[in-house]
Amino acid sequence: MEKTIAAISTGMVPSGISIVRMSGPEAFDIADKVYHKKSMRPEDTGKKPLFHRMKSHTIHYGYIFDGENDIDEVLVSVMKAPHTFTGEDTIEINCHGGMLVAKKVLELLLRKGASAAEPGEFTKRAFLNGRMDLSRAEAVIDVIDAKNEFALKASLSQLKGSVSEKVRKLRDSILDDMSFIEAALDDPEHYDLDGFGEELEEKLLPVKAEIQEMIRRADYGSVMAEGVKTVIAGKPNAGKSSLLNILAGYEKAIVTDVAGTTRDVLEVPVLLKNISLILMDTAGIRDTEDTVEKIGVDRAMDALSQADLVLYVIDSTTDVDEEDRKVIESIPEKAQILYVLNKSDLAGGGADVEKVKKTLGLDKKVYENSPMITFSAETKEGLPALEDAITSLYNAEELTYNDQVVITNARQKALLFETEDALSMVISGIEDGMSEEFLVVDLMNAYTALGKIIGEEVGDDVVSRVFEKFCMGK
After folding, report:
1. pLDDT value at residue 97
2. What domains can be seen in the chain, in order of their start residue?
């Protein structure tokens, strides 16, 4: 018989209430041993166990007791299988918040026969009992871990089944083709494969395009959900640390008039108008003989190589030069660039944007889609324009949640790449005139990879790895 599990499902911090959850075949029997109403205890009634007699999805007031002593005044939620989160009989004890009370209730349940739940074990049981597929189970932890509105909306969409619905449709399409080939190979008298290769390619090209679009949205979605890696770069004393402090909202970086103050990469998470940024202040990039500063410059260049967004800060009281050009040319193509023309409040500041573009002497593509914002770290003039420019580069409204699937999970994204590769093999095989019996092997690989996304073609080791990332009690 499956063991009955229990855990504290709320945080172990002082709070208004805490919830101790218990799920499994003995949940009601164990709850009967520790619960009584105000006027009596179960052993005094001579009746059937209390919770087996209660209606499902009801809440009951009473006390949790241990021997002759009441532990706490509680509300107990009763939920009967199969209409529960786990698909099993479930009890949730709502006790007073705080670490001690909830811990004492949990310890009591464990002494009466429950087993301590592993991280994610409640959701794992929901998956194993067919209450949700693996993509929806993964969405549960994504909802909990959501760092911004985009991540929350995407995760809720996945939790409602957007990923599983899309994947099942794609799998059904591939399965139809595989079934026809298998039938034709077994019964060539009744099924004709002449010309089927061209027909199959016409069917698979839009399927492959759809997979590629899902990958594209996954790239965008993972950045938006996890946070845009935003590197603040530029020459020494351009105002990079001041910009970090302004966007962070507090004095994180040391700011002085001495060039080269920043020697390492400072990282600060910031929520800017519902967009998560991982701000990284870097050492001023220049040629130097100072050993420590050189290490800082190397780290700055390494951060640039991994950036999603670069805020390139230019001291507008000085001319841009070859060092600026070298740094800008080293920024990877995948990164967005936003130029911040700082120190507009000083004499000689407020550089002319067109002049800066011309002086940079760069290929037009480097700055044609890269905003240039006149800015003052001293007066904060230009801050609204800077914030608007950043948010416009990462417009979360680009993706709707009604008809587009946004995958933010790395495991699922990797499986989409596997699917794309398998479909490419099929299409190449068709163009090379390969026999259908070979094509069906790659079709099966695509079908299997998609199945792993929703958990229909996945092993126990993968399932365990997915749920070990969950918090306790979920």
Report:
1. 84
2. 5-119 (3.30.1360.120), 138-221+404-467 (1.20.120.430), 226-398 (3.40.50.300)
Instruction: Give the angle subtended at the CA of 323 by the CAs of 319 and 327, to the nearest 5°.
Output: 120
Q: Report d(CA 426, CA 205) in Å as an integer.
A: 10
Record the tokens describing residue 378, joined without a space: 């001293």
Taking residues 301-305, what's their average pLDDT? 76
| Single-letter amino acid, residue 321 | D
- Whether 118 contacts 94, CB under 8 Å: no
Cα–Cα distance measured from residue 337 to residue 350, given in angstroms and rounded to the nearest whole number: 19
pLDDT at 449: 94
Q: Are 401 and 157 in contact (CB under 8 A)?
A: yes
The values of phi and psi at residue 377, to 5°, are -70, -20
Token readout for 410 is 């790395």
The structure's pTM equals: 0.75
Q: Are 167 and 450 in contact (CB under 8 A)?
A: yes
From residue 231, alpha-carbon distances to 151, 329, 333 in Å are 21, 15, 14
Helices 196-226 and 410-431, axial angle in degrees (round to 10): 160
Residues 6+ apart with CB under 8 A from 30: 4, 6, 22, 91, 109, 112, 113, 114
Structure tokens at 409: 């999970």
Which residues face 276 on adjacent strands?
Answer: 271
453-461 LR contacts (CB < 8 Å, sep 24+): 453/134, 453/135, 453/163, 453/164, 453/167, 453/412, 453/415, 453/416, 454/133, 454/134, 454/135, 454/163, 454/164, 454/167, 454/168, 455/127, 455/133, 455/134, 455/135, 455/137, 456/133, 458/134
DSSP letter for 37, please: B
pLDDT at residue 398 tops 80:
no
Q: How many Cβ atoms are within 10 Å of 61's Cβ, its own excluded? A: 11
DSSP letter for each residue of 387-411: HHHHHHHT-GGGS-SSS------HH
Joined tokens for residue 254:
């040391």
Tokens representing residue 465 in the block? 């790895």
pLDDT band for position 322 (cuts 50, 70, 90): confident
Q: Compute the half-sphere exposure of residue 315: CA atoms within 13 Å on the CB side of its CA.
A: 17
Q: How far from the centroid of its chain's Cα atoms is residue 263's Cα? A: 32
Q: Model confidence at 256, in pLDDT bands (50, 70, 90)?
A: very low
Looking at residue 353, its pLDDT comes to 63
Contact 246, 380 (CB under 8 A): yes
In sequence order, the 6+-apart residues with CB closer than 8 A to the CB of 67 are none
Given a cut of 90, whether residue 383 has pLDDT beyond it is: no
Q: What is the CA radius of gyration of the chain?
A: 30
